[in-house]
């Protein structure tokens, strides 16, 4: 992996090109007036997926663990962890992990939700963690994930996403962490 600044920018540019070329746009989904960026074709294309994994892995080459956010973040997290030679932690929606768990509730534009991580079955204290997901929108899910990991004693070294919807301002909720998005919309 080429993690020099110029090398990292080249990886991000390559991945951004692949994401732009393969993203399928769906109007009025999941609700009228929303234009949904479907990344399924990006993940289904081996070359595009590989470019995304390489670019996201380059954002935190010293990470000791990758935290993938439910559910598309799992796909990214597994690939990035493999590329970095680390493990992967699945950050789950509430009720999907057996107890005991650590939970963090957060606000969405349409209500509240909660995410969870194992309370004691995975050592987090002092570990350098890269948080990954497919989209940064309002920042609620990613902010809650980072806070949950912080509370467990982990050091969140970076947050990385495939796409960022800038108009929703989610980056502001993550200002204490380095944030990388491959494509900003």
Automatic annotation (TrEMBL):
Gene3D superfamilies given in the database record: 3.40.50.2020
Name of the molecule in the record: Adenine phosphoribosyltransferase
Catalytic activity: AMP + diphosphate = 5-phospho-alpha-D-ribose 1-diphosphate + adenine
Main location: cytoplasm
EC numbers: 2.4.2.7
Alphabetized UniProt keyword annotations: Cytoplasm, Glycosyltransferase, Purine salvage, Transferase
Gene that produces this protein: apt
CDD domains given in the database record: PRTases_typeI
GO biological process, one term: AMP salvage
Organism: Rhodococcus ruber BKS 20-38
